[in-house]
Amino acid sequence: MSRTEVSEMKQIHQPIPLGTLIGRELRNEKVEKPTVKYGQAGLAKKGEDYFLTKPDYQRVPGDPSTSFSVFAIFDGHNGVSAAIFTKENLLNNVLSAIPQEIGREEWLQALPRALVAGFVKTDIEFQQRGETSGTTVTFVVIDDWTVTVASVGDSRCILDTQGGVVSLLTVDHRLEENVEERERVTASGGEVGRLNVFGGSEVGPLRCWPGGLCLSRSIGDTDVGEFIVPIPHVKQVKLSNAGGRLIIASDGIWDALASDLAAQSCRGLPAELAAKLVVKEALRSRGLKDDTTCLVVDIIPYDHPVLPPTPKKKQNLLSSLAFKKRSQSSTKGTSKLASVGAVEELFEEGSAMLAERLGKDFPLDSNSGLFRCAICQVQQPPGEGLSVNSGPFFSPASRPWEGPFLCASCRRKKDAMEGKKPTTRSVIS
């Protein structure tokens, strides 16, 4: 054997550095889908809380590879009709707003806008029933390691990662605490103030008038002005393959427990026991003063029977996750596995303006030449559709040619929410 051949053999059998091997593994490893396990617990004071659990829903019926999970809580007020109606219709309304026959990545990118359309459509449909109840909504979609949360009102969803850090995935729409929402309501024609009792004293939390609701966003509430909008705050994040725990609960829990205390109280327990313990802790702290409903959802690495124990870590107040923003220059297929507990923020938007939430594309059915309403999905001729960017009398600032387009009914809803026309709602005592 020549010296050249010996040298080549040594190079072939030379050990590869560990770092190189790990890098290859991260680039080439197919991360398996996580296991989703959940538990539910609750106690009724008024019987107006409802919840939805669909752990194995399929985008393409009959194809298990397209499965995703949905968990939601509906905290009704002034009756149960809005909560029940929303539970029965919201998911279908959201899915109908997502184009058919698209891949998973495109589906996830379309989901935030579809959630906005689904919430608004559900509100329009419920208002047509002429009932006055309302409901908060916290609606969670889990697809592999991606979690998307849409919410109106003051139910809440928190994320507890394996790094021991707790973060809010929702925004509370309480007038008492949300200055931006107070300003929006008054700018749209509502009044914000407390209850006046005999003698002129003001009591209780801030409310909007007419109606006297403490919230600035909900579904239903037909006895309140249209400035109480159903447009949700939406946040989408991607967990690391270490997994994490979601706690979704109505305000009966959060009025009694801070978010970090709720997470800490049930760490190390299976989801079903964890939900029961959160409710127990809330009752021990405050008593049964409101409906208390809790869903605990564990997103578990595929090779673990249960969620790995979270390292104990002292925390003073609610910590914010150092969300890693997706780079503008990142491309599909180049992301590496995140470190333990790390979370990548994919999307967040909370604006109450439809023109800012529905994007600018306006799909045209090439076969029929019809536009589709971005909210109710009804097809319409281009001449009859109104763009969300059309101002009154096509003002210079408007862009009436730029979509998406709304049918006349959904356009009236948009204008009413923005205070551009007098509300037709009446106050019902």
UniProtKB/TrEMBL annotation:
GO MF annotation list: metal ion binding; protein serine/threonine phosphatase activity
Name of one Pfam family that matches: PP2C
CDD domains: PP2Cc (cd00143)
Uppermost EC category: hydrolase
Membrane-spanning parts: none
Cross-referenced InterPro entries: PP2C (IPR015655), PPM-type-like_dom_sf (IPR036457), PPM-type_phosphatase-like_dom (IPR001932)
SUPFAM superfamilies (UniProt xref): PP2C-like
Cofactor: Mg(2+); Mn(2+)
EC number(s) on file: 3.1.3.16
Reactions it catalyzes: O-phospho-L-threonyl-[protein] + H2O = L-threonyl-[protein] + phosphate; O-phospho-L-seryl-[protein] + H2O = L-seryl-[protein] + phosphate
All copies of domain PPM-type phosphatase, residue ranges: 30-299
Entry keywords, A to Z: Hydrolase, Magnesium, Manganese, Metal-binding, Protein phosphatase
Source domain of life: Eukaryota
Protein family: Belongs to the PP2C family.
Matches recorded under PANTHER family: PROTEIN PHOSPHATASE
Name recorded for this polypeptide: protein-serine/threonine phosphatase
